[in-house]
Design a protein that fits this description.
mainly alpha
């Protein structure tokens, strides 16, 4: 029985198609005449295997963590705005979902880490150069502030507005401001976290993902405000949701255009389905928030659509990153393009863009 020594159909290196070998004029080191040149080989990875290891993050744990972090962060800002404008139903909704989102996100993060002790170990050291370390120190104070604000909100009906009730109200307002200060960082740091990896589609979009996640978070927080707040109080939520949806849709369009060939993962497979559904939900929800905010049923449906669109975006970006990590061409083709630009810069007598000298501090 003959064993198949080339199961993947890889071309044998010892075989050269001489019909494709083209002569090259001019030789090296002063020799004249023609010299044969082997044609440029087609790109293939060894046995079709990925060049980098795809992230081992769990699905749906990590996408849900990304979504809940954005929802909690934007809702805390919305709750602080509601306090300043005296909108009690929007304040309650924002505080409760900020605390719930922080706790839910922490649960999904710990489940992805397998052991709770790993999360606690990340709090032992603050490392500014590590997005994961910084993110742990963002999530922890936010969860504390948001939980304190939600607890004060829950106690207010029982304590009244005088004596201890007044103290609890002031403490809740202060904690709510603290959560609102940390909230934007919580909503966007996860974009820095994933773009700091070697995954090509994430890494090359490091300028777009924070803006995309910020818009997605605003759409989710505003959407929940439309669902939970009364019609009288939901105007700030509608404005935030519409602004977030517009920013998210515009940024996603620019990101895929700037990524070039790396954006092909958004045009196929499950990532395409998720991103297409996200665009539809965001567009429908934004229109409903503008024209139907004053009707309770319309506000609820619009808010649900906006929240669904935000969640689908997080799942779509996650799936696109996994597909990019598994595509060897996403590693090699941009690398070859960088080498080509560097060689062209050297031939032109200029410094390659990635080789500029940066003097050390004090020199």
């Amino acid at each position: 029985m003959t064993e198949d020594l080339n199961p993947t159909g890889m071309p044998e290196r010892s075989r050269i198609d001489h019909d494709q070998v083209k002569p090259r004029r001019g030789g090296g080191r002063g020799r004249k005449g023609e010299q044969l040149q082997v044609p440029e080989a087609e790109f293939r990875s060894y046995y079709g295997r990925p060049i980098i290891k795809a992230p081992v993050w769990k699905n749906p744990d990590v996408p849900l963590y990304l979504f809940l972090g954005g929802l909690a962060g934007s809702s805390s800002v919305l709750a602080a705005m509601a306090v300043a404008t005296d909108r009690p139903s929007l304040r309650r909704a924002g505080r409760y979902v900020a605390a719930g989102g922080a706790m839910g996100g922490t649960v999904f993060l710990i489940h992805d880490l397998h052991r709770p002790s790993r999360f606690l170990h990340m709090l032992r050291v603050f490392k500014p150069t590590s997005p994961l370390s910084v993110g742990s120190w963002i999530l922890s104070p936010f969860a504390a502030f948001a939980t304190a604000a939600a607890g004060a909100e829950a106690l207010r009906p029982f304590l009244g507005e005088r004596g201890p009730g007044r103290f609890v109200r002031v403490a809740g307002d202060v904690a709510g401001v603290g959560a609102a200060v940390v909230g934007p960082a919580l909503a966007t740091y996860t974009a820095v976290l994933i773009s700091n990896t070697a995954v090509p589609t994430w890494h090359e979009a490091h300028r777009h993902l924070p803006v995309l996640f910020a818009g997605s978070a605003a759409a989710a927080g505003g959407g929940f405000g439309l669902v939970a707040a009364s019609v009288r109080d939901n105007e700030p939520a509608a404005r935030l949701a519409v602004a977030g949806a517009v920013v998210e849709l515009a940024t996603e369009q620019k990101m895929t255009r700037d990524l070039g060939m790396l954006a092909d993962v958004y045009d196929k497979g499950r990532a395409k389905t998720l991103m297409t559904a996200s665009k539809a939900c965001l567009a429908v929800g934004a229109v409903g928030a503008v024209v139907g905010r004053k009707k309770r049923w319309s506000a609820v449906l619009s808010g649900l659509a906006l929240m669904a669109g935000s969640a689908l975006t997080r799942f779509g970006v996650f799936d696109a990153g996994i597909a990019s990590a598994n595509d060897p061409a996403h590693i090699v083709v941009p690398q070859r393009e960088r080498i080509r630009r560097r060689e062209e810069a050297v031939q032109a007598g200029t410094t390659p863009p990635d080789r500029h000298y940066v003097p050390a501090a004090g020199n």
